[in-house]
Amino acid sequence: MKELLSAAIDVAEEGGRELVRIQKSGRLKTVEKSGKNDLVTAGDHASHKIMFYGLKGAFPGLAVISEEGDAPESTSSVFSPKLSNKKLERILVSDELIPIEDLTVWIDPLDATKEYTEGLTEYVTTMVGFAVDGEAVGGVVHFPFTGETVWGWQEHGNNILDQSENAPRNSVLVSRSHTGQAEEQSKKHLGSNAKIIKAGGAGFKAISIFHGRGEAYFHSGKIKKWDICAVEGIIKSTCYGKFTNLKGKTIDYSAESGAVNYDGLITSLHHHERFLKAFSNLEKHDQL
User: Fold this and answer.
1) Confidence at 184, pLDDT banded by 50, 70, 90
2) How far is the C-alpha of 234 from the C-alpha of 239, rounded, in Å?
C-alpha cells in the first residue's frame, strides 16, 4: 500500500504541474459538459492522462475510475510514478499488503474546473482516493497553485496539521456554485451565529476543515465519488474525523456501486454528530 500511496502522490503532483502549465498558457479549450457549472478543459484531459495511465501502468489490474473516463486514450509516452517517497516513509512506520482485486481507486484530475477557468486557482486540486472493499481508507489531495500536498491512510497516519480548533463555532463550508438556502437553513438549525463559508471544490472545502476555516463541510445534493473518496480517506486517517452521507451512513466506493452519491454528505473532525443532527432532515431541493 505504501507503493500505491507514493505513486498517487507523484501522479497527483505531476498532473497538477500540467494544470499550472496549461492555465498559464491560456489554452484551456473550455467546453460545457451539461451546463455552465459542469465544464471540461484541456487541463482536465492532460492531467487525466498523467494520473490515470500512470497508475494503471504502475499497477496492472488496478481498478481506477476517473472523472474524465471518456477522455481520449493515451497515444504517447505514459508518466511513470515513483513507488517510494522519503517524506512518506518518515511518517508511515508500517505497511500493509492488500489484494489488488479488493482495491478501487477514484481520481479527479481537476477538481474545481469552473474556478480553474475563472482564475480562482486557490480552489483547484488533483485527487486520488483509495477504497478497500468499497470503504474509503486513504487519499491524496494536491493543490497545484500553492504546492501543498495532503495525504492520509486510515489507521496508519497522515501529513497534515490539525488546526481545526481555530474554526469559528457553527461554521459550515458549502459550494459557491450551489449555495441554495445554505445561510437560511444553517441559521435555522444551528442558531443565529452560524457562519457560511462559500468555496469551490470538494477537495478545498474538506481540507479547509484541517486549516480551521470551518468546523464542517456540508453538501445536500448528489455528488460524484471521485470528488469525495480522497478527502473521506484523509478525514478518516485521523482517529476522530467522521464522514457520512446525510443519513449517517457510510458511502460505498466499490467499482460496481456507480459514480454518484445521491444522499449528500457531512464531514467534520470533531463535531460530526452536531452537524448531522442539524442537517439530516433537510429536503433534497436545498442544494447547499
Assistant:
1) confident
2) 11
Least confident of 28-42, 100-114, 270-284: 28-42
Ramachandran category for residue 112: left, alpha or beta (phi over 0 → left; psi -120 to 50 → alpha): left
Strands (E), 117-199: 125-132, 135-142, 149-153, 157-158, 171-175, 195-199
Q: What is the pTM of this model?
A: 0.92
Contact 7, 55 (CB under 8 A): yes
CA distances to 14, 40, 56, 243 from 237, in Å: 24, 31, 25, 11
Quick one: cell of 4? 500505491
* N residues, the chain: 288
**CATH number for the domain whose boundaries are 2-158:** 3.30.540.10
C-alpha span between 132 and 98 (Å, rounded): 8
Residue type, 246: L
Q: Would you tell me which CATH number, out of the four given (3.30.390.10, 3.40.718.10, 2.60.40.2890, 3.40.190.80), belongs to the domain 164-279? A: 3.40.190.80
